[in-house]
Amino acid sequence: MQTFHFESIGIVHSPYREKFGIPRQPGLVDAEATLELLPPYNRPEAVKGLEGFSHIWITFVFHGVKRSEWKPMVRPPRLGGNERVGVFASRATHRPNPIGLSVVELSGIDCSDKKVVLHLKGADMLDGTPVLDIKPYIPYADNVEAARSGFADKAPAPLLEVVFSAAAGQQCEELSLHYPQLPRLITDVLALDPRPAYQAEEGREYGVILYDFNIRFRVTVGCVEVLAIESVG
């Protein structure tokens, strides 16, 4: 058996500070993030020409997943968390090699102060994610119109209406002065119902950390109410 050693070329900075709440695929939530290249890869010439592409592929490590003995079968959330499929028929984070692959929008490149930073939209990566490689997305090769998608034939629609309590609404309005994306991020993340299928209890209080805030919420029939926004910094 061959083994390989890789080193990270960059690190992702995102609003997702824990696994809970991260969209299960890229592009479902228009979250902004950055990818900072690390030395010796933080050279402007390494990204010369990349500005001509609207999207990029990012190969990364699921560094927040506890390593254990791999299993050949997993339970995809798209199947309700109960039905099993082969690990290679899924995009589950628990894999023989904890490697992820996402296509994200490239909204800009900043080469200044001896740094190279890529600005991303639609990222689905945990803050601090190590990046192994970057490649441009090429539509004629990467977009296969006749492709079949198995059990994930279309993007999941928002499941829940999101409302804010009076206190949470005021907190969100005040915080939006420094975190302008926060209101939409909260709404988009919670509308997709981040709860695991086996914990989808109505009336139970949950918390999801976005940026440096714990967003406390509870779910009732068809609706999620944001109860409070608490600082965790």
SS class: mainly beta
Shape: globular
- Overall pLDDT level: 91
CATH architecture of the largest domain: Beta Barrel
What is the count of distinct domains?
2
Terminal Cα span: 45 Å
Q: Would you mind describing this structure in some detail?
A:
- The protein is mainly β and 233 residues long.
- The chain folds into 2 domains: 133 residues, YaeB-like (Elongation Factor Tu (Ef-tu), domain 3), CATH 2.40.30; 71 residues, YaeB-like fold (2-Layer Sandwich).
- Helices cover 10% and strands 33% of the residues.
- It has 3 helices and 12 strands.
- The strands form 3 sheets. A 6-stranded antiparallel β-barrel has the order 1-2-7-6-3-8. The protein has a 4-stranded mixed sheet with strand order 9-12-11-10.
- The longest helix is centred in the C-terminal third of the chain and has 10 residues.
- It is globular and about 50 Å long.
- 22% of the residues are buried.
Question: Can you give me a brief rundown of this structure?
Answer:
With 233 residues, the chain is mainly β. It has helices at residues 139-142, 166-175, 182-191, and strands at residues 10-13, 32-37, 55-61, 73-74, 85-86, 99-112, 115-121, 130-136, 161-164, 205-210, 213-220, 223-231. It has two domains: 10-142, Beta Barrel (Elongation Factor Tu (Ef-tu), domain 3); 161-231, YaeB-like fold.
